[in-house]
Amino acid sequence: MINKEYLSKLEIYNFNKYELLDKKEFQEVEKYFVSNEFVVDIIVGEINAFAHMILLTNKRLFTISKFIQTASQIKQFGLEQIEDVKLGVMGDTADLRMLFKNGNIFKIDYLHTEVAQKFGYNISKMYEEFIKRL
């Protein structure tokens, strides 16, 4: 798998979630990747009281939720759509709020603080790199 080969060489993002790449939800979303798109980070959190896998690539952000037993609901957001990312911390638990340029907001709840900080950092890093390529 190209993503596993790439991620094994990618030290800057400290990727350590290889087990999530084997999940059915990841395999469903991977077919939507465009050329030169690769995984940067994956987290599992709660959005609107439902568990989601949130996948960050170098080009987009995906949310994947189990819709029914046999399928998942996949949403995608371009990095250029993200206006702001905010971290809310309460001890070891944190949430990430993403504000999009169209005014939409979604909040990822029940994350470990370190996981939320790293994911937020990776979003801002990918956004900067995306803007530089324009």
From TrEMBL:
- Give the superkingdom in one word: Bacteria
Please list the residue ranges annotated as the YokE-like PH domain. 35-119
- InterPro entries assigned: YokE-like_PH
> Which is one Pfam family of this protein?
bPH_3
Protein's name in the database: YokE-like PH domain-containing protein
Species this chain originates from: Mesoplasma melaleucae
